[in-house]
Amino acid sequence: MQFFKWKFNLFLVFITIVSILVVMTVDSSKLDSIVIANNDYDDSLVINEVNVSDDTSDNSSSKDSDNNVNNKTVFVNAVVNKWTFPVAGSYAITTYYSGSHQAIDIYSYSGYDSNILAANSGVVIDANSNCTNQGSSCNGRRGNYVIIKHNVSDYYTVYMHLNKIYVSVGDVVNSGAVIASMGNTGYVIPARTASQPYNGTHLHFCLFKGEPYRGGYAINPFSVY
User: What is the rounded average pLDDT for all residues in the chain?
Assistant: First the structure.
């Protein structure tokens, strides 16, 4: 009798262990499904994707060095950070960014007086249009120029050698807004002459981290495109 009672108790222990294992398996499955559900994300939350170069201190003067290499992808808010190339339509890069030329020179195939666009939204902090026939030294050789403080990451952009300027200090501009027209004021090569008044037409486009000429430093503009 004791023998059968012992076997019955052993059977109950076995049934209990099996039941516990079944419950643990089910709970584990539920836990996995909960973890997966919490890690799902909505693609619509990704607002804008841009490529940014890891190296913003490129001192090479070669054309290839100015292309975005060794890029990483970051997600940013397009409302505050929508970069627009400052020249619309067909253009040519006549001088690339380097240690000795901390900007890119852009020529528009639309030519002299073609539109110059704000590279990002922000506020105009400097706009100087006093250069007409004063020669290459006007405004420290910059010619007519505009500086914009942008709404993202302490970026500033500078636009030089302009013909006409359509904005004033304090104006708030959107990315892609027309702010000026392309010209050849200030120091340009080849210099304009009476017989060749459009010589040297281009935009000298600078990107700064921090305020230009007040502690900020120039970086390759292609690092934001």
Answer: 75
Strand partners, 172: 123
Q: Is the dihedral of CA 35, 38, 43, 46 positive or negative?
A: negative
Give the gyration radius of the chain's Cα atoms.
31
Q: CA-based angle 156:157:159, to the nearest 5?
A: 155
Per-residue model confidence as pLDDT tens digits over 51-90: 333 333 333 333 332 322 233 333 333 345 689 999 999 9
Q: What is the pLDDT of residues 146-158, one digit of tens each?
A: 999 999 989 999 9
Who wins on pLDDT, 170 or 6?
Answer: 170
Model-level pTM greater than 0.90? no
Strands (DSSP E) contained in 24-121 are 48-53, 71-76, 91-95, 104-108, 115-117
- Whether the per-residue pLDDT at 213 is higher than 50: the answer is yes
Residue 93, exposed/middle/buried by CB under 10 A (0-12, 13-18, 19+)? middle
Q: What values do phi and psi take at 108, rounded to 5? A: -90, 135
Q: What is the rounded CA–CA span in Å between residue 144 and residue 134?
A: 11
Average pLDDT, integer, range 124-149: 92
Question: What is the residue whose two structure tokens read 């006409």?
Answer: 164
Strands 122-128 and 203-209: unpaired
